Each structure stands twice: as structure tokens, then as C-alpha cells.
Amino acid sequence: MRDVVARVGRTRSxxxxxxxxxxxxxxxxxxxxxLLLSIIQFAFIFAAQLGVTNAVREAARLAAITTPxxxxxxxxxxxxxxxxxxxxxxxxxxxxxxxxxxxxxxVSSLTTVCYxxxxxxxGKRIILVRVDAAYVHxxxxxxxxxxxxxxxxxxxxxxxxxxxxxxxxxxxxxxxGSPPGLIPVSPETCSS
Length: 192
Hints:
4-stranded antiparallel β-sheet, alpha+beta
């Protein structure tokens, strides 16, 4: 008789333990799900940052080899071409490098190709090109949207802004004399 009572007691305590574990799992599941979704969201943001950085680097490389770029007219023309190669919604560098790229996420006022004149270490005049791009990556987790949306300074864009900038020397021939319309030291000659 004692054996039967002991077995019934053990069975009952196992059922209670299973019920307790289920209740604890139900309490912790939303937190675990949010944690997992947060990791996924940050992976997408990190991938977008890497994509924008690669696209800007490719555009700067294109601008550096597009020569001659000595005058403001050439800078305007070449800069527009490089800007188009960066931002084209079907074949541009951003489209090729940013996973799930949405052209509406491009911040056009912060996406520029700028040229300026300076001197190198040997005292020769050279032209530098700087390519900047900004892209708003959409947030798809509502709780994270409320927390992260304002971190980039704009709480109305519905996403997190990622930016990249790259500067390279334009591979022009040596600049001799003062050609008419030479790119000035300041202000920069920009295309956007």
C-alpha cells in the first residue's frame, strides 16, 4: 500500500513540475523571441552598413580613374556620372551592394560626389574626390523601431540611417600652370 501511495505521489509531483516548466517557458518565450528578432535586425543593419561602405568605395574608385578631372566643368560632368553610377535604382553600386536595397531609403541631400584641389607632399597640385552616401535602413520590429528610430537624429524616417564616406586622389596628369576653370581649394565642387 505504501508503494502505491508513493508512486501516486511521485507521478503527481512530475505532472506539477511539467506544468511549472510550461508556465515558466510561456513567461520567458516573448523575451527570447524579442532577443532573437533583435539579433536578426542588427544583422540586417550591419549588412546595410557594409553594403553602403562598399558602394561608396567603388564609386570613389570610379571617380578617381575618370580623368581628366581638373576644371569645375569636368568635375560637374564626371561627378554627375559617378553619382548616377552610385545611385541608379537598377544597376547602381548601392543596388548591387545593399541587400534588399530600397531607392526610397536613399538620403539624397547627404549623397554627394565632391572634388577639391590640394597639394601633395611634394608640393604638386592634385585633385581629391570625396564620395558620401546615406541610406535609411527600415526597422521591421515594432519595439526596436521605437528605441532605435531616433538614434540617427531623425525620429520620423522609420529606420536607422547608415552612412559612409571615402576620399581618393584623382589620377590626373600633373597640373601645370593655372588652367581656366581649375577646381578651387575651397569651396568643393559637388554633384548630388
